[in-house]
């Protein structure tokens, strides 16, 4: 069972973890990444115990973000082949 329901606005963005976090009663942090949110994941887990929370958010807020940043699909062919 989920420990709690938490709105994304009440969570804190952690630059180091690259994840939204929320204090866990065990002293660690519940964590969920933007990738998780884009995929529709709504469970933020604590790495130190078995608790988790259900994150309440608008999936569209995160879905848009991805389509704008798709620019790593063009591998450059710069293989220098030494032919004697
Ligand atoms: Zn915990």
UniProtKB/TrEMBL annotation:
Output a single Gene Ontology CC term carried by this record: cytosol
Q: Which GO terms describe its biological process?
A: protein histidyl modification to diphthamide
The UniProt GO MF terms for this protein read: metal ion binding
* Keyword Cell inner membrane belongs to the record: no
Q: DPH-type MB domain: which residues?
A: 2-58
The record lists the catalysed reaction(s) as: 2 [3Fe-4S](0)-[protein] + 2 Fe(2+)-[Dph3] + NADH = 2 [4Fe-4S](1+)-[protein] + 2 [Dph3] + NAD(+) + H(+); [3Fe-4S](1+)-[protein] + Fe(2+)-[Dph3] = [3Fe-4S](0)-[protein] + Fe(3+)-[Dph3]
A Pfam family that the UniProt record links to this protein: Zn_ribbon_CSL
Recorded hits in Gene3D superfamilies, A to Z, give:
DPH Zinc finger (3.10.660.10)
Q: Note the PROSITE patterns from the entry.
A: DPH_MB (PS51074)
Source organism's superkingdom?
Eukaryota
Named in its record, the pathway it takes part in is: Protein modification; peptidyl-diphthamide biosynthesis
Q: Which SUPFAM superfamilies match?
A: CSL zinc finger
Protein family per UniProt: Belongs to the DPH3 family.
PANTHER family tied to this protein:
DIPHTHAMIDE BIOSYNTHESIS PROTEIN 3, DPH3 HOMOLOG-RELATED
- Supply the name of the protein: Diphthamide biosynthesis protein 3
């Amino acid at each position: 069972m989920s420990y709690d329901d938490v709105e994304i606005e009440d969570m804190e963005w952690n630059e180091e973890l690259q994840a939204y976090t929320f204090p866990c009663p065990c002293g660690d942090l519940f964590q969920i990444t933007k990738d998780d949110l884009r995929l529709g994941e709504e469970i933020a887990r604590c790495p130190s115990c078995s608790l988790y929370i259900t994150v309440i958010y608008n999936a569209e807020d995160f879905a848009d973000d991805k389509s704008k940043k798709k620019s790593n699909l063009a591998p450059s062919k710069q293989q220098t082949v030494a032919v004697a």
